[in-house]
Amino acid sequence: MTHPLSGQLVAADQLQSMRKKIAADPAVAAGWKTFEDKMHAYDAAKLAEMKAHWLELDDRAKKLGGHKVFTRGNYLRIMAYSLADLSFHYKMTGEKSSLEGARMIGNWIASEPKWLAQGAQNGWIADLWTADFSAAVGLAFSFVGDALPDEERAQWRDALSHKGIEPVLADWIDPQTRIHALDSMGHNWWAVCVSGAAIGLFAVRDTHPGADALLNRIADSFVEFFNYPGNVLQNKHRNFGVTGEFIEPLGYLDFTLHNTLFMLDLYRDRFGRDLAAELPVLEKVCDYYMANLETLEGKIYRPNFGNMHSGADSVGAYNHYPTQAWLWLANRFQRKDLFHLAQKTNPQPGKFLEFLFWPESFEGASFAGAPGCCVFESTGEAVLRDGYEDTSTFFTIKTGENWNHNHADAGTYILCSAGREFIIDAGTTEYSNPLVYSYFKKAEAHNVILHDGRGPRDEIELLGTKHMGKIAAHLFGADYRYLLADATGPWEGVYNRFYRHVLWIGDFIVMVDDLMATHAAPWTQLLHYRGKAETQPGLTTIDNNGKVLKIHHLFPVAEKIETKTGYLSSAIPNPTKYEFKISETSYLAFHYPGPDRREKFIQVFDLPDGKEKKIEKIEAPGVSGARISTADDTWEIICNHDADGRKMHQNSRVKFGSLETDAFLVVVHRSSKGTLRSLGIHNGSYVRSNGAILYSALLKSDVHIIHESSRIGFESALTAPAWADFATEEAPDRLRRIHLPAGQAVIWMER
Question: Which whole number is the average pLDDT over 564-590?
Answer without folding.
Answer: 84
